[in-house]
Design brief:
Blueprint lengths: L9 E6 L3 H14 L3 E6 L2 H8 L6 H4 L7 E5 L8 H12 L6 E5 L4 H9 L4 E4 L5 H13 L19
Parallel strand pairs: 1-2, 1-3, 3-4, 4-5
Length: 162
């Protein structure tokens, strides 16, 4: 097995319009997975720009094997919401190997069903800092062979939850 330093970096793109949620995700991943590169998009349009072939994460999105990029996607955002993001991403990237995990407070059955129909790989109810949500995200990482290890119960250093 190659050492971790020989592997290409893994990028997490957090697509969420709430700056506090983005900051908390950055803190959580910096504590839990310091090898992870975190990029922030404040709406679906910014997220698509990051994933475009000429975007900062685009070159890794089509790599064979284990994904080098994954997306944590909120559903409720201005300009381009999470459902619209999923539709456009699948059209524009033509099935690139980019797992998308919906991270949303909208955890009703219809939202979950629609997210999966549009190609989401997983659905995680907010807050991400909740131990059950971290365990769910870890299971998705394990299933997709994303070499990241999260610890349930991590503290983000703030009084709010993501």
């Amino acid at each position: 097995m190659t050492p971790a330093t020989d592997r290409p970096a893994i990028t997490a793109i957090v697509v969420d319009d709430h700056p506090d949620h983005c900051l908390l995700a950055q803190r959580l991943f910096s504590q839990q997975a310091p090898q992870l590169r975190v990029q922030i998009a404040h709406d679906g349009l910014e997220g698509l720009q990051l994933l475009a072939p000429n975007g900062s994460a685009g070159s890794a999105s089509g790599s064979p094997g284990a994904p080098r990029v994954f997306v944590l996607l909120d559903l409720e955002m201005p300009r381009l919401n999470g459902f619209e993001f999923l539709e456009r991403m699948r059209q524009q990237l033509h099935g690139a190997n980019v797992p998308v995990f919906v991270l949303s407070a909208c955890a009703d059955d219809e939202s979950i069903r629609r997210a999966y129909q549009l190609g989401a790989h997983g659905f995680i109810p907010k807050p991400l800092s909740h131990p059950a949500s971290l365990r769910t995200l870890q299971r998705y990482f394990d299933l997709l062979s994303i070499p990241i290890s999260l610890r349930a119960g991590a503290h983000t250093g703030t009084g709010t939850n993501l």
